[in-house]
Amino acid sequence: MGRRSVSQKDLAAALGLSPAAMSDRLRDRVEFRLSELDLLSKRLGVSVVALLTVVEVAA
Question: For the domain that residue 34 is a member of, what is the CATH number?
């Protein structure tokens, strides 16, 4: 996944989710729980706020 070279499968395992459940969250079909965001932030080495911050990219 992106710049940190962590796979979606690895993140799913870290959260105790199936790859399909992780996919649902990443595709915004299911909301992340706060506890999941906390685990993700620790795994990725960023704050929860950073995970929730929208960055606009110029076209």
Answer: 1.10.260.40
How many separate domains does the chain show?
1
pLDDT of 56: 84
**Mean pLDDT, the chain, as a whole number?**
90
Terminal Cα-to-Cα distance of the chain (whole angstroms): 22
Alpha carbon of residue 27 to chain centroid: 10
Answer whether 40's CB lies under 8 Å from 15's CB: yes
Q: Is there a domain that residue 59 lies in?
A: no
